[in-house]
Amino acid sequence: MDMNMVELLGYAASIMVAISLTMKDIVKLRVLNFIGCGLFTAYGLAIDSMPVVITNGFIACVNVYFLVKMQQEKRIVSSNA
Question: Where are the transmembrane segments (predicted)?
Fold first, then answer.
């Protein structure tokens, strides 16, 4: 099987998203999913597919938003303790 770099990028993105969905820890899930979405965004750019780029770019932003929100909440809780 002859795979080029673009195909490998797509497979790597798929594997990262799949692994992220096995995580019990929500932070690990979001971090791995963010990485997978970033790879999928790069893959979408490489294959010139704007639906892939827009969807995964949006999901990556959602992951960052919730990671930042969780970090801020953790700081608030630890400063009140």
Answer: 40-68
pLDDT in tens, 17-60: 999 999 999 999 999 999 999 999 999 999 999 999 999 999 99
Q: Structure tokens of 57? A: 């770019």
**Pick from 60, 71, 11, 9: which is nearest to 35 by CA?**
60
Number of domains comprising the chain:
1
**What pLDDT does residue 7 have?**
95
Please choose, from the candidates 41, 66, 43, the residue with its C-alpha nearest in 3D space to the C-alpha of residue 54.
41
Tell me the C-alpha distance between 1 and 54, whole Å.
30
Q: Which domain holds residue 43?
A: 5-80
SS3 59: helix
State how far the Cα of 9 lies from the Cα of 58, in Å rounded to an integer. 19
DSSP classification of residue 51: H
